[in-house]
Structure to design on (234 residues):
């Protein structure tokens, strides 16, 4: 056990899907895994382990924001031996051609700062996805019916943003969407030599003001999960 993950050694799989919402973790476990078992619920941040097509998988809630993601990813990698970590979450669309419910596969994650920023000092480290996962996800995405976009995203720790000028620069430079966790996940994966990828469904849009209700964010987005599972075991 660790401070934030109450599972016993051996209860966490080497492949972990990481939604931010613990209730989405439960929904994914119930709808995609066989023999899924709740292995811990410390602070209500559910963790499940089961099987998908004969492959052992864990689903671990990560909370909101890079500090929370950093806690869970660090413990999963260092204390439980996770080797493949895939963020499955929501993002805000930042381009006209990116539509509500589309899937974004993140090659890179631009950010102002992460919990790891202090160790780099003056260096602007560029966190990126694992190529093998990225390529497998792009291939798996050919089998879904929603729109799929591959490129850079923006990870922000500010949900109620008051920097429209910064958003405009992200849009001007082709950033597909904004979310709150991937940059730190990618940084930690690079540090520890494991695989990471972010796959997000567009739940709202910065340009149009469209947004999905919270219950649909929690219990839908199946295409994103299918892509993640197929990529993990390609």
């Amino acid at each position: 056990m660790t401070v934030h993950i109450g599972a016993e050694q051996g209860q966490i799989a080497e492949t972990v899907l990481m939604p931010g919402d613990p209730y989405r973790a439960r929904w994914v476990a119930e709808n995609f895994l066989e023999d899924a078992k709740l292995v811990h619920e410390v602070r209500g941040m559910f963790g499940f382990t089961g099987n998908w097509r004969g492959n052992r998988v864990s689903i671990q809630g990560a909370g909101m924001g890079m500090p929370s993601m950093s806690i869970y990813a660090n413990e999963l990698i260092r204390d439980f031996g996770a080797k493949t970590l895939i963020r499955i979450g929501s993002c805000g669309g930042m381009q006209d051609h990116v539509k509500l419910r589309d899937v974004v596969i993140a090659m890179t994650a631009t950010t102002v700062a992460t919990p790891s920023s202090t160790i780099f000092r003056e260096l602007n480290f560029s966190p990126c996805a694992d190529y093998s996962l990225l390529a497998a996800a792009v291939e798996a995405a050919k089998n879904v019916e929603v729109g799929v976009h591959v490129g850079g995203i923006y990870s922000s720790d500010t949900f109620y943003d008051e920097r429209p000028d910064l958003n405009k620069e992200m849009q001007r430079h082709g950033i597909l969407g904004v979310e709150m966790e991937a940059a730190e996940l990618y940084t930690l994966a690079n540090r520890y030599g494991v695989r990471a990828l972010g796959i997000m469904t567009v739940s709202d849009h910065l340009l149009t003001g469209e947004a999905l209700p919270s219950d649909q964010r929690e219990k839908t987005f199946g295409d994103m999960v299918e892509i993640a599972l197929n990529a993990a075991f390609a």
The chain is about 35% helix and 25% strand. The mean pLDDT is 95. Strands lie at 15-18, 34-40, 47-52, 55-60, 84-93, 103-111, 148-155, 177-179, 195-205. Residues 66-80 form the longest helix (15 residues).
